[in-house]
Amino acid sequence: MQKISSPDQEKKRLAALRSYHILDTATEQDYEELTELAAVICQTPIALISLVDANRQWFKSSKGLDVSETDRAYSFCAHAIQVPDEIMQIEDANKDDRFKSNPLVTGDPHITFYAGVPLVDQEGHALGSLCVIDQQTRALTESQQNALRLLAKQVIKKIELRKQLTDSQYTSKRLRSVNNRLVTSEHELKSIINHLPLPAGVYTGIDMVIQFANPAMLSIMGKDESVIGMPYHLALPELSAMDFPKTMLQVMQTGISYQQRESHLTFMHKGELKEFFFNYDFTPLQNEAGQVWGLLNTATDVTATVKARIKAERAEDLFRLSVSSANMGTWHLDAKTNSLTASERTKELFGYLPHEDMPLDAAVTQIAPEYREHVTKAIQAAISAGESYDLEYPIIGHRDKKLRWVRATGKLYTKEDGSMTDFLGTLIDITERKMTEQRKNDFIGIVSHELRSPLTSLNGYIQMLDIKASNQGDELIAGIANKAKRQVDRMRTLITGFLDVARMNEGKIQLHRKRFDMKSLMKLAEEELMATANTHKLVFHAVEHILVDADQDKIEQVLINYINNAVKYSPGESTIRVSCIKENGEVKVCVKDEGMGLAHKDQQRVFERFYRVESEAMQTTKGFGIGLYLCRELVELHGGRAGVVSKLGKGSEFWFSLPVLSSSNL
Ligand code: ADP
Prior knowledge:
Layout: H1 7-19, H2 29-42, E1 46-52, E2 56-63, E3 69-71, H3 77-80, E4 88-90, H4 103-106, E5 113-120, E6 126-134, H5 142-195, E7 200-204, E8 209-213, H6 215-221, H7 232-235, H8 237-240, H9 244-254, E9 258-269, E10 272-286, E11 292-301, H10 303-325, E12 329-334, E13 339-342, H11 344-349, H12 362-365, H13 369-384, E14 389-396, E15 403-414, E16 420-429, H14 431-472, H15 475-506, E17 514-517, H16 518-532, E18 537-540, E19 547-550, H17 552-568, E20 575-583, E21 586-592, H18 600-603, H19 627-637, E22 641-647, E23 651-659
Parallel strand pairs: 18-20
Antiparallel strand pairs: 1-2, 1-6, 2-3, 4-5, 5-6, 7-8, 7-11, 9-10, 10-11, 12-13, 12-16, 14-15, 15-16, 17-19, 20-21, 21-23, 22-23
Adenosine-5'-diphosphate binds near residues 593 and 627.
């Protein structure tokens, strides 16, 4: 026989009873039926399922009794549970010392007979009893006792089942709510990510399964939605080769976020090998307990910005390099504030000390006086045409008063609305080159003068030789004399050219103007050239009568020079077209060839003295670069203009124009 006595055991029993959550619950049919059965089997008016609480006994079912609970002190069941594995039977309570003074015995409901089977759960806790009560003395038969035991087992089973049910109901309810919360938070997370203004994705597990990726992230990956749900290494094998999964796993394991800025990646993107720069972050995602359950990957494609910066940096480096290697001065004029920023080299060229401020007007006032007007006009013209200028002129140093020749370039930058922003320019010291040119000039002048008289004598002797040989019918000598004469003529042309340059420099070229018809000049040139130039197809277009007042020899010299150049710089058999038309009060002569043509930068400079294009094709053609210089100077002396329209490799059209004599001048 086992007795329950210790307070500790009683505490545990009460805890067990409470865990069934049955006290004070409503009447239930199942329990009602069991007490009904017990009463019928045992032939008693009262049958109870009594649960013994700390201070009371509470009846889950009470057949034949109107109360739902009584004081524990008067409880028969409280006694019954003291011996959990036995049925307690009291045939006459009036004769039992424990109960004879019990108000339930002495008063209502006048208990005389009592038989109770303890309700013991699987843990061995006696929660109460199933009992039958009568108001008269009696005893249960063996089979009634067995039946009561079986019924008690049913009761306890029901109580236990009920607990399991409520427990699992509670758990599933809890699960449902947790699940609901999860579904809601998953939904919210997805919606947040989809609305993020930057590419974002969430990966979970060791394999980094892509749970979500917003459209911007998919576009960066070069993938579509089919990658969602796939492990990262399968979805993006191209990127997986670059240690990404390892870094991500590290973030998952350590809980420390990771970020990279302007990371340079080259990978297959939509079937094309592409180069990218990304800013990206891996941020661990933690639950309430602080466990990392996934990571958030955000990334921004900064390729365009980084590439533009690299390009700008390279351009700037290149510019700095070329500026320093060419010992170039630079300057910048803020068109809004009119403030000039000059580099040290610019200041040096203008004769200022490095720490001195160079005033804006120095750029004009220090130009040598005889060039000032010409230079400022040319700059003005370039600005108003929105073009850059490239000029050579001498400046006089501020402190040292030294004359330096500079090559100056400049460009005005305007905004889209047409307002001026910045003026940028460069300066190179070309004094040395100019001095060399001057020396060359002087030398050519002197030598040409000195050569002229012996050449004139030589020409005379050859003529005499020619006449004598012709008279004597000596063809050999006559032929030699003829060849010698041609060489002398070539030399004379060269010397005349050099002398003209020297004279031009000194302003000593004299024009012998007379009225003549351009039609006849063109005819003369045609006859002369048709006889000599047989390597090319020369086409002279029809010319009307156009009167001019000019030095006919000099104008013919210009035309012949243009045509000779066309022959020199275009392939044999190609066509050269010569035209002469009246246009806007001017006569315009054009010589058009199908030759090598000129690059834009050379077109601006071919009329400069000694300028020759530097190219491979030019290596084989001889020349001094003075022909076109003389042409322009001569044309300008007549108040005309000269120029060229050309495309590299496509041919050139050299032209000059002269004022036409109006009928009132005739
Ligand atoms: P030269 O012919 O003696 O070099 P020019 O003053 O006549 O000197 O010409 C200057 C430069 O202009 C030439 O060296 C050549 O590079 C270029 N040039 C002149 N005429 C032509 C042309 N018709 N086609 C292409 N280039 C030309």
